[in-house]
Amino acid sequence: MQRLAVRGVSLVYEVLGKGGPWVTISPGGRRGLASDRALGVLLAESGFRVLVYDRRNTGASEIAFTGDSESHEQAEDLLALLKALGAGPAYVAGCSSGSRLSLLLALHHPEAVKALLLWRVTGGPYAAKRLAYNYYEQFIDAAEKGGIDAVAKTEHFAAMIAANPANRKILDGMGKDGFLAAMHRWLKGFHQGSGHPVAGITRDEMRGIALPTLIVPGNDRIHPREPGQAAHRLMPNSEYREVMAEEVDVDVDFDAWARKNGTLAAYFVDFLRWRERAA
Asked: If you placed Cys at 214, which of 33, 50, 185, 271 could pair as Cys (CB 3.0 to 4.6 Å)?
């Protein structure tokens, strides 16, 4: 693993493969690069150079709470990381929250993106409520009850501190009031975009993204099939492929999706090779 500071945030990253077109993968939730590294290995073995990384507030990267939208800040971080590595324009792949930041990157910086690969796109009222709690409300509650000490003991931030002890100093430097202000600001930003068919981006913005896009919908409560279908309808240059035939009554079925890495990688490689031939 390597570490690079961009936009004032230290990010951990790894490059898989020794050559070929660049592909970058952004996982979902607050999961780090390890969650989709196996998929990245399959793409690298197929002739691509794959960037996997811990976004701000994930894995061993640093905690940082600037701006009004977490997804927007992560999109700008990815742009800066790609530029620092000389890796753009790149094929940009994202799952769940990673798909949101990928869409925002394509919307605001289309010159940095060759094409999009989006899977388990997020949307719908259940996802809006559940993710607001997962990302922000549980930490607001912890801070209000026990200050920064309580935040540092939550599962997510305890893991980030274990992976990078400097993160505890960052939290201490913010203090309870600074942390709460940041969480409320980002929660507001999340809610402003959560009511769209695809969370975080309006219909008109989706229609304005003309980049080639491959969309693979989800099949669970947080990633129902409908947001992926909506993305395909709205995006003028998109393709649609399904990996999961049946919907499941769970928030996220991580194990089932991990077992489908081979299928997902095959769809991605076919799409990427077709785009390379068309370039």
From this structure: 271
- List Cβ<8 Å contacts ≥24 apart for 174-178: 174/65, 174/148, 175/148, 176/143, 176/147, 176/148
- pTM > 0.85: yes or no: yes
Is the CB of residue 78 less than 8 Å from the CB of residue 94? Answer: no
Contacts of 192 (CB under 8 A, 6+ apart): none
Per-residue pLDDT of the chain (279 residues; tens, 9 = 90+): 899 999 999 999 999 998 999 999 999 989 998 899 999 999 999 999 999 999 999 999 999 999 999 999 999 999 999 999 999 799 999 999 999 999 999 999 999 999 999 999 999 899 999 999 999 999 999 999 999 999 999 999 999 999 999 999 999 999 999 999 999 999 999 998 788 989 889 999 999 999 999 999 999 999 999 999 999 999 999 999 999 988 999 998 888 999 999 999 999 999 999 999 987
Rounded distance, CA 169 to CA 184, Å?
21
Dihedral in degrees, nearest 10, Cα atoms 256, 157, 54, 42: -20
Domain ranges of the chain: 2-124+198-278, 128-192
User: Do 56 and 9 meet the contact criterion of CB atoms below 8 Å apart?
Assistant: yes
User: What is 2-124+198-278's CATH number?
Assistant: 3.40.50.1820
